[in-house]
């Protein structure tokens, strides 16, 4: 953590140096599997942990560690906490490594039904097989959350995603964190959609934050990686050990791309938010759009909550078209400027049809109950000239069946 007061914007741009080497201006990619010791005494001290020094890149290396520490510092900025971070090979491995560090057989997770699809499957298929169960409930119902925490003492982790994908529903991080504390459960927020620039869960008492850095933190769609952020030193060693032994560490190349991408994070998030708010306002007025899910809209039911816990509303939104499945598929094919791609948070505008992609394996009734109809379209609004995004949407909407 830098000692002098520095803003989140400046922190994004700051260079992080490895104290052990003479300084190149910009962090290089340490493409080395191991690090040489000066002599056997040096080696013994490093292995014993008496001296700082890198050992083997599966345990981390200067590129990987600098990236993790920068994200940790951003998550903790202004909180007074000393956060630490571990870069992992993907967002998914950040989640699995965290859960496997904290929970053991016969302990369980309390979470929401509308998690990122991969997370839902990880919990129900892989972790379930390891004896870790998951309860999926409506986390906006705080009485229900408390009832679960009280009645089922096997619950050791409250796992939260807000805003949720693709409906942008928000959950009250502060209230949930207080409840979990009361019953001795850990808390984790998947902060992928917001990045620490828009939302800092640690401020609300959350124990751990994870990201798919694949998305906004990198921003350029050219790496897969994740990160786990924590602040309680008691778990730092355990997390480090789990990542090292599961081998879920990030590689230096993907860490470096993330590190480089983050230099413009503040500029990007500002532009993503501005563009998305303009797109949302345009869509809300369009007669062929039934509903727009964007937390920045005054009409949005989560607007007040989002304003309390977020500093801006980000680049993600979804909208419901006044047409059927066929009309929606045609609309997506009619888009020429926006690209169809199953990711989010890149600098260019990306479109996704949840019903036939991320939510394909969820039965129609459950899907619709969760607000994901056949005519729902998700947009990851990019940083281009917003006129180009709007005019593409406009021409496709004018052809709507
Ligand atoms: C993409 C994503 C993940 C998974 O991350 P990967 O980097 O693809 O493993 C987890 N959570 C959210 C919210 C995501 O968007």
A few lines on this structure:
The protein is of the alpha/beta class. It has helices at residues 8-13, 40-48, 62-76, 91-102, 117-129, 142-151, 173-182, 195-198, 233-246, 252-261, 265-285, 303-309, 325-334, 364-369, 386-398; strands at residues 84-88, 108-111, 133-136, 155-161, 186-190, 208-212, 226-230, 289-293, 316-321, 339-340, 350-352, 376-380.
What distinguishing features does this structure have?
single chain, 401 residues, alpha/beta, 7-stranded mixed sheet, 15 helices, 12 strands, 40% helix, 14% strand, globular, binds pyridoxal-5'-phosphate
What does this structure look like?
The chain has 401 residues and is α/β, with parallel strands linked by helices. Helices cover 40% and strands 14% of the residues. It contains 15 helices and twelve strands. The protein has helices at 8-13, 40-48, 62-76, 91-102, 117-129, 142-151, 173-182, 195-198, 233-246, 252-261, 265-285, 303-309, 325-334, 364-369, 386-398; strands at 84-88, 108-111, 133-136, 155-161, 186-190, 208-212, 226-230, 289-293, 316-321, 339-340, 350-352, 376-380. The strands form two sheets. Strands 1-7-6-5-4-2-3 form a seven-stranded mixed sheet, with helices on both faces. Helix 4 crosses helix 9 and helix 6 packs parallel to helix 7. The structure holds pyridoxal-5'-phosphate (PLP). Residues 90-92, 116, 118-119, 161, 165, 190, 192, 212, 214-215, 224, 226 line the site of pyridoxal-5'-phosphate.
